[in-house]
Amino acid sequence: MMPTLQDGNMLVVNKVSYQVGDLNRFDVVVFHANKKEDYVKRIIGLPGDHIEYKHDKLYVNGQFVDEPYLETYKKEIDGRQLTGDFKLEELTKEKSVPPGYIFVVGDNRLGSWDSRHFGFVKADTVVGKVDLRYWPIQEVQTNFSKG
């Protein structure tokens, strides 16, 4: 999830009030990737969504959707494309995110292992939403949807 989150960041994950029905686009969530590991990724696609990236821009159901949280990272890569072009059906053979699933992507698009590689994530494997980064103290943050 770099640059948004770094190895060693300490996080508060809302496990209590965050239910499957509360999943929102751009939430940063923790989910069970397998029996031994949890992953932290950003929700890009919700059930019923068609996802496409063209020329480093996100389109959901054919409409451009801004991703302000990536602006700092885009500046760091000096004009290179951050997110490779794809359509959901090219990666998953599905035209839209199925009911009960989400599509997640890491902010470090060039090096993230995410739904582009392993497919959809079952919504009921979501542990919770990252509500707060409290360490390191100089990087305290509560809103991960904005830049």
TrEMBL record:
Which top EC class is named for this enzyme in its record? hydrolase
Q: Give the originating organism.
A: Sinorhizobium meliloti CCNWSX0020
NCBIfam families linked? sigpep_I_bact
Can you name a GO cellular component term?
A: membrane
Q: Name one Pfam family in it.
A: Peptidase_S26
- What are the subcellular locations of this protein? Membrane
**Where does the UniProt entry say this protein principally localizes?**
membrane
Q: State the PROSITE patterns in the record.
A: SPASE_I_2, SPASE_I_3
In which family does this protein belong, per the annotation?
Belongs to the peptidase S26 family.
State which Enzyme Commission number(s) the record gives. Answer: 3.4.21.89
Q: What is the protein's given name?
A: Signal peptidase I
- Recorded catalytic activity of this chain's protein: Cleavage of hydrophobic, N-terminal signal or leader sequences from secreted and periplasmic proteins
Give GO BP annotations, semicolon-separated: signal peptide processing
Xref: InterPro entries: LexA/Signal_pep-like_sf, Pept_S26A_signal_pept_1, Pept_S26A_signal_pept_1_CS, Pept_S26A_signal_pept_1_Lys-AS, Peptidase_S26
Membrane topology (UniProt) = Single-pass type II membrane protein
Q: What residues does the Peptidase S26 domain cover?
A: 1-135
Citing just one GO molecular function, the answer is: signal peptidase activity
Print the keywords alphabetically: Hydrolase, Protease
